[in-house]
Specification:
Length: 155
């Protein structure tokens, strides 16, 4: 009886996790390009975040406020920081989707020259020009930094 309940709960957990991953796969953006990225990025105000994390600001609040007012202001600051962390997380997710799509497009999508023996993709001139996979990752990192600067300047 107990073994049956344990087996049934394991099957239920596996089914739920498979459904979760399947639905996540279906709801993903199919192939994000550089033209799609800026529309999906959310603005992040870094200056306000740094100001809230500044210990001098906290000291000023402690000296200017007492009791309930201080706690409410700290809670407001924490909610503000949480919102900005969620935005940064969202932006990182969008940029990772884009970089994975670019990497897949570069290695697999446009370069379908496979050797018959080992079924490994042959190197392409564009992949060699970028310095291989490490060069692609460096290029993606620089592009992400540029997109962050652009999104901060437009905000």
């Amino acid at each position: 009886m107990i073994a049956y309940a344990v087996l049934l709960s394991c099957v239920a957990l596996l089914s739920i996790s498979a459904l979760y991953f399947f639905l996540g796969r279906l709801s993903r953006f199919p192939c994000r390009t550089i033209r799609d990225v800026p529309a999906f990025l959310q603005p992040v105000d870094s200056a306000n975040v740094f100001q809230l994390l500044n210990p001098q600001t906290e000291d000023y609040l402690r000296s200017a406020m007492t009791g309930l007012a201080l706690r409410l202001e700290q809670r407001r600051s924490l909610h503000f920081l949480r919102e900005h962390l969620l935005r940064m997380s969202h932006n990182a997710h969008i940029l990772l989707e884009w970089s994975n799509a670019e990497l897949k497009r570069e290695i697999i999508g446009q370069n379908e020259e496979y050797s018959v023996k080992n079924r490994m993709p042959q190197t392409s001139p564009s992949l060699d020009r970028l310095g291989g996979a490490k060069g692609i990752h460096d290029c993606v990192r620089k592009t992400i930094q540029n997109l962050i600067l652009i999104s901060e300047s437009t905000a």
